[in-house]
Amino acid sequence: MSPMQILKRLRGRLIDLCVIIVGVSVLVFGFIRMIPGDAVAIMLGANAEVTPDRLAALRSRLGLDLPVHEQYFAWLWKVLHGDFGVSIWTGRPVIDEIGAHVWPTLQLMLMAMFSAIVLAIPLGILMARMRGARGEPYVQAGSVVGLTVPPFWLGIVMILVFSAIMPKLQMLGYVPFSKDPLGNIQRMILPAFALSLPITANLARLLRSTLLEALQQDYIRTARAKGVSARRILYRHALRNAIISFVTSVGIQAGYLLGGAIVIEQVFAIPGLGRLILGAIAERNYPLLQATILLATAAFVLVNFVVDVIYTLIDPRISE
């Protein structure tokens, strides 16, 4: 493909990205309004002087007395101008609330994805090379266990085990890396491993399958007939083609990391987006919940756009 064709394709993908985000904003806004409970009633519930007039006044001040479609367009117009609103409970800008909690979650997700990729590539190659070997059933069984073990359960087990073996090890809570690098790594390594285990198993199994499929292709047989070494065939030819599907799955798994991170953060008492989202749901904090889910969805779509760009760089023929 020529550079102009590549740019045209990426421009089309950007348009698709914008359409998807707008569609998601409609769904997010509508579904949040369907959550049982009234934010205004919850906010005034502990006050003995709650009256219909006070409820109506607060609802009007928050803009919750308008029709739903008017609320949506007013909110969307502000979002397009970079204004995600203010938290109903704290009065702080929503973007500041998210910014205060995003870094622990981002670090957790990056560490989990990095460890998953680093472990999955050699494991996938090992599983492919062990096809037909006596130890293959054990390796396959281990990968199935990795897929089926819930990350939160693994996190609880690791806390119990390491607290007994290494009682001085700091495993709960969070400290910024800039303040205490060692303490930060100590607290993040276990939750990152627990979060990454199913992704590692999934990526390793996928890489094994694509490697075995690539090794059955005609060009591999030709390379063998020419006397090319098995190591060179595996790493230079088969792995290059298998890595394309691997990259695809990495992009998809990165999007699902946030869902797993929310649960892991509760297990390890990490003050990230998970705690923020759960608190916003309990408080019916509509602006905060809307902004958090919309930004998370936008990040997921953006990651897949980046994956599409990487496709083009790895093999432009994919874009044809």
TrEMBL record:
Family annotation (InterPro entries): BPD_transp_1_N, MetI-like, MetI-like_sf
Topological type in the membrane: Multi-pass membrane protein
Family of the protein in this entry: Belongs to the binding-protein-dependent transport system permease family.
Subcellular location: Cell membrane
Alphabetical list of Pfam families matching this protein: BPD_transp_1, BPD_transp_1_N
CDD domains per record: TM_PBP2
Main location: membrane
Keyword Transit peptide: no
Official protein name in the record: Peptide/nickel transport system permease protein
Keyword DNA-binding assigned: no
Alphabetized UniProt keyword annotations: Cell membrane, Membrane, Transmembrane, Transmembrane helix, Transport
Organism: Chelatococcus asaccharovorans
One GO cellular component, as annotated: plasma membrane
GO MF terms, alphabetically ordered: dipeptide transmembrane transporter activity
SUPFAM superfamilies named in the record: MetI-like
